[in-house]
């Protein structure tokens, strides 16, 4: 049983079927196929606006390429200290931006606050030649601590970005989980709140390896295709990425997959909250639970067949548990039994 | 009917089945799965040596990452003027090497000659601080003109590389086709001939999106994993890449798929050779035909449902026709009928 | 006696005096001093237009930084095969552009022809995602073979650049020598002919280490200061660079220094033309002579105290002889006597 | 009167004389001159060891190039949050390392503590492919707050670097000032304490624009010359940089220039300590004073002809005052009178 990561889950059946269905015969390569065009159209409907969308295969590619078109080499990118782009991409954003600087900031529950961004950017020295130049803000939705930005929180950040002329990027590796929690329109937490570019994730939520880079700010999209190719992320047999995204976006599959993951996370959180000696470290709003468990629970976990991560720098008793599109109530109940 | 590229072909059924079969349940991510380990073992058997193998999803990633561990930013990479890395990757090798210089060379039939390499490298100014420093040779097997390096041709190039302390990279996007033509052991055209790193292609030959970077020189592999991750080419759900490669390497599937493509190419070449006014531009040794067709044949092609490329800089009458793992005799005969 | 390079010459006395004079007391650093402002003003007068000018200390810095603001990482720079940026900068342009591709072209006498540029750029695949994108043309004035572009030759190249939306850069390491030969207005071979950015050289012509990057296209200048600082080429004690340039531009010093170098080169060329068995390889238009010398002359040179370069790839009998601002008639006559 | 920066000071007379003296006639370019060789020899004597030394013209070049040979693109560089490389070089280290990550750390008085480095590096995830890899530590001597590392503090840091296989770089822009304070041997705070590469500054201490990159670890020097050229920091007329360094190192000039700056700083610090309402923020150990001044003193300063910096993020009442090789007692007394 795997609670280590939603990356460990298999591909959702409907997405796998779509891949098979796309396997009919010859089809133009490098994205000049009808499926790829269709994905963009579906995203326009979902986000209720004009946009450009480009499939890539990894979340790191989506993030790093998004930033590469927003940030000059001498630019600064403001992000949370725990952000995936700062912690877990082995410097991919620095590589793709040709050496821009990530400025890691603190923020409660893994979220950046507009006030802190305003404070830091105002002091950053825009125009001062000795300093890297404020260029973009990147936020993660849902965030690294499993919490979710509210629409007004994003809109406030969007205003800071706008005021200082910065791009606003959203790492939406778990965008569906965040949306499912909020119940708002996708537009409310993206372009209406000032987001320029979204890494629209699917892999963690049931796809095989497919994300879409979504540009609400069309001007930012101009260089994208060259940078994607140059980064070796333009797939010759693109149809298989697009088929995944097409199925993901059809009949609300993306929402229902996320809904299950969130539901099981909530069930798990409730169980942990009731476990004597256990403590949830953050509000559980998406599909990640961070908890401190009593020693005896950790020992039982360690000898079980359940996979999970120790979390935090001291790693004392803290665990990260991630639910997936295919996590079942039975899985949750089994896990709760082990730690009880 | 598509003769434009082997990229336009679908996925071979056995490879698609392997993907489905890999979809059983949770599996460790980022390559820590048994399938990925198995691919490396199969390649050891095939190449009859110890090696390191890393799956990536695109041929450009395989090439650019291979070069990135062989070449410092101030290095020179010697390749054919028509090489994919020089012509068709939008500067990916320059990106991944942080700005190394590709030195394009001439060579008959799309192949580099050891004598020309020796001449150029000897004059390159090794150690001279004003010049970029000779660092690697990259050859393509089968090459951009559809021709195939013989083992002794590669071995001679290997000696030049060794003499000057350069790495030798092989772009094997169509490695199976070359091997099928030669009928020799895989080792004979790789490590036994001095090749350090091979981009072992599968995508063009029936996979969905999977290549292996194969290191015969283990020292070169040390940095690879960091550079792959940093390039955003480490797949979280790696099992689906490895499943493709595993099926590809099982029961000689890779050889039989290439055998069909080569056989149909030979059939097509014979037909063109017999077409009045038509002329093959290069020996047809793999699955690509470059031919000059008479005007009337071009006109018939243009109004047919057959896709293909005009080739060459003048594009006057020259066509590139590529056969695939799934090209049928019927396809060839239909094409020949159109141009006859 | 040194004919190897104008780099071997010392600093012209008036320039050294200016450095001393600038040494009075405290002065604002990083270019916020009156001397630096003054240099820009003097260049505006000389070029009869508004412009931005930035001192740097090396010609390679001037070239690489100029290109870095004109060319995206996925861009192509068209230059002569013998260009300094292609041959002699150890990849600095690739470094500063984050991996753009230099496309080396042939051209008589070290000069690019507009027709050849048009032909190549038209075929380059602008907008085609697999190819690097045409971004800039770089020409050298005077050129690597000691020849000089005429105003109309540059204007034709300027039209090609304009037609295709490319930037036009001029490497003017020996700009003064070219101008002295032509006798036209500086504007005639720069902005009036379509040049966007000029590396305005002084070091080879009597300065200690000072060049100015001159932007006729102000839009291109926006990022320059950040890239200069980031390249570590913003001098804290900038006044000493600016003092050099100020003296260089005062009372036509730059022109008279170049006039002497050209005059001595002409004298040397005439002498070589009259030497039996010797042959000038290119018209001598600036301060560089490329000649084929008879064996006996080479032997005499080899045992003399005169420094020079063998030139060309075969180096058989070919020499490069460079005159400087301080070369004397006596030096020339001595050299001619040795090879006679 | 200028207390804003030691960069605002002119060139020391003996250094200017040396430049003049170097102006005799032709001399081999690009460092192949006797002066450049001599500088290396003098540094060997001073540091009592074998070493390689390379002149460059700016401190940022010295730092960024030093790091570029120690750190792969996927590497992490640990430095103080206030370090010049982190704050004031517009991302030059990121540029020269092709995108390595600077990890800013806290530390009292602008100094890093070995214990904090050990803690952070131990948790950094060496070998873990998702994280940038620990590669170098950079410390500044004297530091950004005007304090000086003691030999044992550096040696402890050296042991951390050695334990984890990291390079140790010292930014010695004010190395002479630190040494003058400590009174120890130069070796004691460099190679004997584990420093691999030193940016040996001269510009801030009386030179025009000259620093030496000093390699105690010869293996690290191998790539340096190519990277310097590629960074456009190889001067054709190198003799003028070397002449500065030669004079600087002759007859202890470097020590006596720093001694004056330190002496005047001590005098100023004593005066501030005696000023009612004023407070020194850090121990004054080199030539920089950070102080909080009473409102009335700030008002008097503001209307005086004295230049200085407000410091700190809030800038409330905090000033930075820097003395130079040419600061006089009279300057100090005048400044003290203004703020009294």
Task: Summarize, please.
Chains A, B, C, D: Its cofactor is pyridoxal 5'-phosphate. Chain A has 13 helices and 11 strands. By secondary structure, chain A is of the alpha/beta class.
Provide structural commentary.
The structure is a homotetramer of 340-residue chains. Chain A is an alpha/beta fold. Chain A has two domains: 12-252, Type I PLP-dependent aspartate aminotransferase-like (Major domain) (Aspartate Aminotransferase, domain 2), CATH 3.40.640.10; 254-339, Aspartate Aminotransferase, domain 1, CATH 3.90.1150.10. Chain A is 39% helix and 16% strand. Chain A has 13 helices and eleven strands. Chain A has helices spanning 13-21, 34-47, 59-68, 84-87, 92-96, 114-122, 151-164, 175-182, 224-230, 239-249, 253-273, 295-303, 329-339, and strands spanning 52-56, 75-80, 101-105, 133-140, 167-172, 197-201, 211-215, 279-280, 288-292, 309-310, 318-322. Chain A has a seven-stranded mixed sheet with strand order 1-7-6-5-4-2-3, with helices on both faces. The first copy, chain A, has a four-stranded antiparallel sheet with strand order 8-9-11-10, with helices on one face. In chain A, strand 8 and strand 9 form a beta hairpin. In chain A, helix 11 runs parallel beside helix 13 (329-339). Chain A is globular. The two termini of chain A are 17 Å apart. The model of chain A has no long low-confidence stretch (mean pLDDT 96). The B-C interface holds B 73-74, 87-91, 94-95, 97-102, 123, 129-132, 313 and C 73-74, 87-91, 94-95, 97-102, 123, 129-132, 313.
């Amino acid at each position: 049983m795997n609670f280590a990561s939603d990356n460990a889950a298999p591909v959702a059946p409907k997405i796998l079927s779509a891949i098979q269905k796309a396997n009919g015969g010859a089809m133009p390569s490098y994205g000049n196929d009808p499926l790829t065009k269709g994905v963009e159209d579906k995203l326009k409907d979902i986000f209720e606006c004009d946009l450009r969308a480009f499939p890539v295969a990894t979340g790191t590619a989506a993030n790093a390429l998004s930033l590469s078109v927003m940030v000059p080499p001498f630019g600064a990118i403001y992000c949370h200290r725990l952000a995936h782009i700062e912690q877990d991409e082995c410097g991919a954003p620095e590589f793709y931006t040709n050496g821009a600087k990530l400025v890691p900031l603190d923020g409660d529950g893994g979220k950046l606050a507009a006030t802190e961004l305003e404070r830091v950017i105002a002091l950053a020295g825009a125009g001062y030649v000795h300093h890297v130049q404020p260029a973009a803000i990147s936020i993660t939705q849902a965030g690294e601590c499993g919490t979710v930005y509210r629409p007004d929180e994003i809109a406030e950040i969007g205003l800071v970005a706008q005021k200082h002329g910065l791009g606003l990027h959203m790492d939406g590796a778990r965008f569906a989980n965040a949306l499912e929690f909020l119940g708002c329109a996708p537009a409310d937490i993206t372009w209406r709140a000032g987001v320029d570019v979204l890494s629209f994730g699917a892999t963690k939520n049931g796809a095989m390896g497919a994300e879409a880079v979504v540009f609400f700010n069309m001007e930012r999209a101009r260089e994208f295709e060259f940078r994607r190719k140059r980064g070796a992320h333009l797939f010759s047999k693109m149809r298989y990425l697009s088929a995944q995204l097409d199925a993901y976006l059809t009949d609300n599959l993306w929402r229902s997959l996320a809904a299950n993951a969130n539901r099981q996370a909530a069930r798990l959180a409730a169980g942990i909250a009731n476990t004597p000696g256990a403590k949830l470290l953050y509000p559980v709003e998406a599909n990640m639970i961070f908890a401190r468990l009593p020693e005896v629970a950790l020992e039982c976990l360690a000898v079980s067949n359940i996979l999970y991560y120790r979390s935090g720098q001291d790693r004392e008793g803290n665990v990260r548990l991630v639910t997936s599109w295919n996590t079942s109530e039975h899985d949750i109940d089994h896990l709760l039994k082990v730690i009880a």
